[in-house]
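Q: What would this chain look like folded?
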Amino acid sequence: MKNLNKNKKNISISNFIKLLLKKVPNINLITNKSFKDLTTFKIGGKIKYLIEIKEINILLKILQLCKEYNIKYFILGQGSNILASDKVCKILILKISLDYLKVRDNKIICGAGVNLFKINDTAIKNSLTGLEWSFGIPGTIGGAVKMNAGSFGGEIKDVVECVYYTDGVKIYKKQNSSLSFDYRKSFFTFNNFVILKVVLSLKKGKQILIKNKCFLNYENRRKTQPYNLPSAGSVFKRPQNEFAPVLIERCKLKGLRCGGAEISSKHCGFIVNFNNQAKFQQVLKLISKIKKTVLKKFDIILQEEIIILR
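A: My prediction, written as structure tokens:
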């Protein structure tokens, strides 16, 4: 078997950053930023090197160099479904802040870094319907497409027309039919391609009805979910023909704590960071406890919906 990495140049991450600064001027390099400041869970250690991406051409240059020098990287959006380790993160973090946004007839064209709140606000102002289910969900459109975000019977796959993405060499375009959307996954789930731009195709509607539906969904979320505490959203995917929160509650795990981490007493599909004191390992212990208990009681294997960065 051929060694696919034999022609790649291997250097340390610190030397790579020095080289990057020489070859790609004007990059926005941030050092020692904490995952606590970049995720909705408010958990995680320092990030040794983070680059905020606001221009596609700079992203392409960085990705090309990462490939050439065999440098691992992780793509970060708004960090709304991330549980990060408390240890220092030594891999390169690329925070996607591509915030291009434009409306053309019934379409919203947006950069991958635009958050869903902004897109919903734009849809309301332009009387465009189809995204009401997402009102109140934190995160970016890039992240929503990657995991096929959904709620209240709607999913992002229902409104995506096409997606522009890159492998670091070329920019590609895929139509909805080629994006392999499924429950909480898409074409992008199992590769390292970077989403650049998303085109959403919506329908014209009555502004007041759209607005009312959005705020009704938002109020339902506030009433049923622990909005007042940091979390990464739903911890587990929905098992076939079951609901993870129902299984967890039937196991009488609601409200269980491990240090500052708690299985929410308001919605046990969430693990919350109580008083901002939760640690990475404490959340992992609760996840493990839930999975073992549900497996023993119901013979069902729960799968995490959140992304765990170790």
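The first strand starts at residue 28 and ends at 34.
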